[in-house]
Amino acid sequence: MFILVAGGGKVGSNLARTLRRMGHEVTIVEQDRARFVQLEHDFEHAAIVGDATELFVLERAGIARPPDLVVAVTGDDEDNMVICQVARERYGAEKVIARVNDPRNQAHFDLLGISPTVSATQTIMAMIEHEVPEHELIHLLELRKENLEIVEVQIDKSSPSAGKRVSGLKLPTGSRLISVMRAGRAEIPDSETELQPGDQVLAILEPGKEDELRRVLLKK
Fold first, then answer.
1. Is the confidence at residue 138, as pLDDT, over 90?
2. At 174, which CATH number?
3. Which one of 22, 65, 97, 141 is at 20 to 30 Å from 162 when CA atoms are compared?
4. How far apart are CA 2 and CA 22, in angstroms?
């Protein structure tokens, strides 16, 4: 694959190195000249200096080919939005991935249809929720293009679903249980699977159905 990476900071440079080791052709664009000097040393002709929101810079990087994938991982959310929009709408890039630095800007990426996006803050929060017992329902993954999300719930003794078969649960429309982890072993549940205290259950559902799912699995 030919992959264009916009942003040569720690995220972009490490990503580019990994992709090259995997055998992909990578061009990386960085506007900070001091940082670019190091990138040029590491990547030679595959490093381009300039602002990746500028058309002539993107064209020097080879965007007109177009790339199989454009990854915008600069430290500026507005720049990442512009880069992805230009790549798709002007140059016909079919696949883009954007970094979201401030989770409050996620709605803007969604409004523009830029997907998938990656937010380190949201990823770390999901990990924290997983480790903190008070969080009954944990958001693990959002599939925005498919309008679905994957969540995890922990069944305990007081859960109304404990001791019930999946077939006996009134799950909300647009949701499905996809995995039950018990004693360190995961299985795909079927209608006869009986939920037990201590089970970690993964469910896939439409956004907005979390409260309904929580009532069925966790709260009376």
1. no
2. 3.30.70.1450
3. 141
4. 12
